[in-house]
Amino acid sequence: MTGPVVALAGGTGGAKLAAGLAAVLPRDELVVVANTGDDTEIYGAHVSPDPDLVSFWLADRIDARGWGLDGDTFHVMDGLRELGVEVWFNLGDRDLAYGIERARRLAAGDRLTDALADLGRALGLPARVLPMSDDPVRTHVRAQGREWPFQEFMIVGRAAGPVEGLEFRGAESARPTPEVLEAVASARAIVIGPSNPLLSIGPILALPGLREALGAAAAPVVAVSPIVGGQVVKGPTAAFLEWAGQPLSAGGVAALYGDLLDGIVSDEPLGPEAPQIPVHTADLLMSDGPSRERLARATLAFAATLAG
């Protein structure tokens, strides 16, 4: 099959795998569809954490924290603190600049897709990063006896469970972009990254028509499990799997995706709770560039066998 490789991504795991895929594919053959349910408006900026996270990883400019720009400064945040502002959402100066320019573009009537494309060009990205939708979708989590916007849950609430509810506000009236639907329809492989299946991939699949488009695509849909050695490397995936009534396992992840998957890359066999789909066993830990590329090559080779 010809066509691009399409990756659905959110969070660090999805961004790392996207970087691995971009490293082993010819330039511009990768299209990343990024979750925008984590987006927020703060400091006069439109902050789009997952698309930016993917972009910074693809540009090889990620910092040691794993979510900002390498070498960024924090003078604006320091200035706000001096003015007595409670700075709970810490943004680097250049990171903030991207968000301010994005807010200006959106206020002028531009699409999020176009604003993100310009950021990609400025960073010299080797792949396209598409927001899942140009319409606003906002993830809200119920935990600790209250309801949280996603960023407040993660930072102020420290992502502490148990989780009591999950809502993607605006998803019912949002739509996948034409670029997303075109990429899915023309793909030769569709990879769901090792992201939180509920928090990071859930908002993408909640868009009307997107799950159906994935099911109708000629390309195989392959998930990479975010469960590594029976544990979660980063983030609150365990708490959300528990809330969904699924075990902390590749089988639990596969069960959430259901009949959407043609196969899964995992370091463990699937349990009886999972759909009976092909499994490719691989080392899932992505600790450096070579390991990201190794997993990317294994995932693409597995998808090719399913397509064949």
General description of the model:
The protein is an alpha/beta fold. The chain has a single domain (5-40, 111-119, 126-307), classed as Rossmann fold, CATH 3.40.50. The chain is built from 12 helices and 14 strands. The chain has helices at residues 11-24, 49-58, 75-82, 93-107, 112-123, 150-155, 178-186, 202-205, 210-216, 237-243, 250-257, 289-307; strands at 5-9, 30-34, 40-42, 45-47, 128-131, 138-143, 146-149, 163-169, 189-192, 221-224, 227-228, 231-232, 263-266, 279-281. Strands 5-2-1-9-10-13-14 form a 7-stranded parallel beta sheet, sandwiched between helices. It comes from Conexibacter stalactiti. It is an enzyme of class 2 (transferase). This is 2-phospho-L-lactate transferase.
CATH superfamily: CofD-like domains
CATH topology name: Rossmann fold
The CATH class assignment is Alpha Beta
Taken together, the total number of domains comes to: 1
- Coarse morphology: globular
The proportion of strand residues reads 15-25%
Helix amount: 25-40%
Corresponding CATH architecture: 3-Layer(aba) Sandwich
Radius of gyration: 18 Å
Based on secondary structure, the structural category is: alpha/beta
The low-pLDDT segments are none
Total helical elements: 12
Distance between the termini: 9 Å
Could you spell the SSE succession in H and E letters? EHEEEHHHHEEEHEHEHHEEEHHEEH
Please provide the count of β strands: 14
**Main sheet properties:** 7 strands, parallel
Q: Report the average pLDDT across residues.
A: 96
Keywords: Magnesium, Transferase
Organism: Conexibacter stalactiti
InterPro entries: CofD, CofD-like_dom_sf, FbiA/CofD
EC number: 2.7.8.28
